[in-house]
Amino acid sequence: MAPSLIVFDLDGTLVDSLGDLHRALSLTLADCGCPPLTPLQVRAMVGDGVEVLVARALDATGCTVDRAAALQRYLAHYTADPTGRTRVYPGVRATLEALQRQGAQLAILTNKLARATQLVLEGLDLARYFARVVSGDSLTFRKPDPRALLEVVAGFGVQPGQTLMVGDSEVDAATARAAGVPFVLMTYGYHRIPPEQIASVARFGDFAALGRFLGAPAS
Fold first, then answer.
1. Which residues contact 114 (CB under 8 A, 6 or more apart)?
2. Which residues are catalytic?
3. Residue 118 above 80 pLDDT?
């Protein structure tokens, strides 16, 4: 498989950000007088954008605080140190470099807000690999709305069938399916249903395997 364009999700696909998501959410809940959540609980809440993340956390703790205020507290805590506990998954850098050498165009489509996305990509020295980054507030729609992915595809002047989406969740899979784009699942991410129940052309448990699948093994 040699797609012209590869569109990646961010959290749970390229980076393991659970530590920083949990940290910021823990500080937010403490500020609001809410009980804490475990990392495992937070992991199951990730993937649909920060507003949904905070709302799910408040629902899970039974807190009845002002949600808009809690969201602003979360954003302040998260952007204060977005990469302190976030790590690039093994094999990501070398594989991205191999894909670039192969001539593939690379982009990111994430539901993470643009400011947070920029801080993470720059803080982890990943921004240089991607020709375009579309975040959760870049457009008036976001995943799983297929228009978000189709807008990225159109911007590169390619067809959906010439594109591959790589993600870690049922949200990513639904987006790709609705857009007519082949999808590869990274099984180590933040999906909420078993990987075998998520439709994909391939599933991998490490990023280097994706590179080999695409004919761009890391050197």
1. 133, 135, 136, 137, 138
2. 9
3. yes
